[in-house]
Design a protein that fits this description.
single chain; 736 residues; alpha+beta; Hypothetical protein af1432; Beta Polymerase, domain 2; 5 domains; six-stranded mixed β-sheet; 28 helices; binds manganese (II) ion
Length: 736
């Protein structure tokens, strides 16, 4: 045994904490026994391992088990699985031993978890992993819920990891785990995912918001108290059992508002929400919530458009609550959320709590519908992993519309869904053969976006079939995947003619079929043989013309050494490309994988124009070139999440002498020429920076300017943005 006394005490104290959390003494004897045996096995099995932080490894599965209970609300079987989740993957214990010791239920979940984990070691596109995540999701949701707990604990303790690994984990998390947590109703976990990701990718902005929240905390608390006081009086009079809380929104969601709405921290009116949680029996829930709504709106004037009734129609992730925004003291807007204890438990713990109240076998359950959608996507053998993830992500849409069939059945679709999406949601066959769609009794184009409350009817005809253009008219993953697979089938059928024609031709000129086809596919730069067959069938490729580019030797096609399409010898073209490359300024301060960047053929990505000091990563493109992107690049998450194996570590060496050009957009109130003068004064005199160019344009009391600055590093840039922001008349500064 390699546990020291201190190690043992540390593990023991976490175990005690877990036992308190699951109320161990009140569990049935069988469950107690199962948990104790899981603990004993984990304790033994992990004894040789340490975490990156140096702590004994076994504290990780125990903490994961605590999260699984405390924040997701899982039961004893799942808790045991959480304790065992890394045993098969990381220790000599085998899956068979787990099955034998704990039975098939635990065995199956642990197996699912092992498979999910093991995949991250394989050099394969992460998209394939997500596909695996989702197959286990429809198999037994608990696998994915435990995976969420695992991911959360790893993120909470990510500090010990090297930075490039942190980035990879952050990208994966915000690309798939955070939306998935949202879809499963795990709001708290989703928020924490997003906050930790932001802390990794945008530490300065994270700190900025965090500090602001801290400074304004007392003022906020006083305001909430003032807001709540008159409400309490009224609620007490009604004799209700309730609780009122007022909590600030998450750092990442506040930052998102600042970014997307282009407002300052001070201008965000809904920094916090008031939550009234009522303890009442289930049969009275709806009435009581509306009663409380009536109290709130008697005291404060509501903004009617902001009323959201998720009680009558819960969100498809199970969320139930009544939201309103009212005008509080000093004319400030305040969001008030009204819900019962049960609804609150669902809002905080998500799926597991929803399950507890509804029962899993409810056919009309919104989760069941969603699982059906995923099963549909999974069964679609044609879709490749990346297409699949994109399709799946559309099923994670945050906002929904509620539309109706002529019989009055409700269909929930993501916001932005079209009439054609509706047809596919009804039934695949209805989608395939849809010829005309009526919304509220009026004939509409099939690509028409639906609104909540629309009544939709679809006319079908057997002769109708999907075409390429349909893909542009749908947004749901199901419709997209179905249309695509029908297109592929169509292509394959047509391609058969092309294949026969090609076979005949090659036979006539006595060329070996296998060699000949592959040679042509390569020559025409196509992805596969079916593509070639299809193009021949469509007469887009003329075999006789193409064959002119080849000689035939010993029954094989040999490309003639001639010219490329542009009419220039191939080599010359390549040379030219290398020339343009070398014109780019050298990035001597950059290290890729710890080596000077000059060792590699590389350039700065033009989508995000990184400067010295920005957090960056290197990305190996399909053409084997390396591009340097900012971690906050809009394309970064997609790249890292789907092609993580192409990401290389990149960092700036500290010594620097080079300069970077950065464009800033400055928006403000136009109060005469004074603004421009103040701005140039601050930039060139106070900050000592060079202005490359400066353009400004005013309209209706506002101005919008673009300034190109020469800076040495990100710190200098950050300082410049801060200073410009403080200039009188300037309301917003963003980096372009
Ligand atoms: Mn783990």
């Amino acid at each position: 045994m390699v546990y020291s006394k201190a190690d043992h005490e540390m593990i023991e104290s976490i175990w005690q904490r877990l036992k308190r959390e699951v109320e161990f003494d009140r569990l049935e004897e069988g469950d107690q026994d199962m948990l104790q045996r899981a603990y004993d096995l984990g304790y033994q099995a992990h004894h040789k391992q340490r975490r990156k932080s140096g702590e004994p490894y076994f504290i990780h599965p125990l903490e994961v088990a605590i999260i699984a209970k405390k924040e997701i609300g899982l039961g004893p079987t799942a808790i045991a699985c959480a304790i065992l989740h890394d045993v098969v993957e990381d220790t000599p214990v085998t899956q068979e031993e787990i099955n034998e010791m704990f039975g098939p239920k635990v065995g199956k979940i642990v197996d699912g978890l092992t498979k999910l984990d093991g995949l991250y070691n394989v050099e394969s596109p992460q998209a394939a992993n997500f596909k695996k995540v989702l197959s286990t999701l429809v198999d037994d949701v608990r696998v994915v819920l435990i995976k969420m707990a695992d991911r959360l604990h790893n993120l909470r303790t990510i500090g010990a990891m090297p930075q490039h690994k942190q980035l990879k984990i952050a990208a994966e998390t915000s690309y798939i785990y955070a939306p998935l947590a949202h879809r499963l109703g795990l709001y708290n976990i989703r928020t924490e995912f997003q906050d930790i990701c932001m802390k990794i990718t945008e530490p300065q902005n994270y700190k900025f918001v965090k500090d602001k929240l801290k400074v304004t905390k007392d003022e906020r608390r006083a305001y909430i108290a003032e807001f709540v006081r008159p409400l309490r009086e009224e609620l007490d009079e009604l004799g209700l059992k309730y609780e009122v809380t007022g909590r600030a929104k998450s750092i990442s969601s506040i930052w998102n508002k600042i970014k997307t709405k282009k407002v300052t921290f001070e201008e965000i009116y809904d920094l916090f929400a008031i939550r009234i949680i009522i303890d009442t029996e289930q049969s009275k829930e709806k009435a009581v919530c509306w009663q409380v709504y009536s109290v709130v709106t008697d005291v404060y004037r509501p903004i009617p458009e902001r009323l959201k009734d998720w009680i009558t129609t819960p969100k498809s992730n199970g969320y139930e609550s009544l939201h309103t925004t009212v005008i509080g003291p000093d004319g400030r807007y305040v969001e008030v959320q009204i819900r019962t204890t049960r609804m609150n438990e669902i809002a905080e713990k998500g799926f597991a709590a929803h399950w507890k109240y509804k029962g899993i076998n409810n056919q009309h359950d919104s989760f069941e519908n969603w699982f059906d959608t995923i099963r549909d996507l999974l069964e679609n053998a044609n879709s490749d992993a990346i297409e699949f993830v994109t399709d799946f992500k559309t099923s994670l849409f945050r906002e929904e519309v509620y539309v109706y069939t002529p019989k009055g059945d409700m269909i929930v679709l993501p916001k932005g869904a079209t009439a054609l999406d509706f047809a596919f949601a009804i039934h695949t066959e209805v989608g395939y053969h849809a010829t005309a769609i009526k919304v509220n009794n009026k004939l509409v184009p099939m690509g028409q976006k639906l609104k909540s409350g629309d009544q939709v009817s679809v006319t079908t005809a057997k002769v109708q079939k999907p075409s390429e253009s349909w893909l542009k008219m749908v947004v749901t993953g199901k419709a997209r995947a179905k249309i695509r697979s029908s297109m592929k089938e169509e292509r394959r059928k047509k391609g058969e003619f092309g294949m026969e024609a090609l076979m005949r031709k090659l036979k006539n000129i006595k060329v070996d079929y296998e060699q000949g086809v592959d040679c042509l596919v390569k020559y025409l730069k196509l992805k596969s043989r079916p593509d070639l067959y299809y193009l021949i069938a469509q007469e887009e490729v003329n075999i006789n013309e193409v064959l002119k580019a080849f000689d035939i030797e010993h029954g094989k096609l040999i490309p003639k050494k001639v010219e490329t399409q542009e009419g220039k010898p191939a080599e010359e073209v390549t040379d030219k490309r290398t020339d343009t490359k070398s014109l780019q300024k050298p990035l001597t301060n950059l290290l890729i994988n710890g080596e000077p960047a000059d060792t590699y053929k590389h350039s700065l990505a033009t989508c995000c124009n990184p400067v010295q000091g920005d957090k960056v990563f290197a990305y190996l493109t399909a053409n084997q070139e390396i591009k340097i992107h900012r971690v906050t690049c809009p394309n970064a998450t997609h790249m890292i999440a789907n092609y993580g194996y192409r990401v290389l570590k990149a960092e700036w060496s500290t010594a620097t002498s080079s300069n970077f050009v950065v464009d800033l957009q400055i928006i403000g109130v136009d109060d005469g020429p004074g603004v421009i003068q103040r701005m140039t004064q601050i930039i060139s005199n106070d900050l000592g920076l060079n202005i490359r160019s400066f353009s400004i344009e005013g309209k209706e009391g506002f101005f919008m300017g673009k300034v190109s600055l020469v800076v040495k590093n990100a710190d200098q840039l950050f300082l410049a943005i801060q200073k410009i922001n403080k200039i009188k008349g300037v309301t917003n500064v963003v980096r372009l």
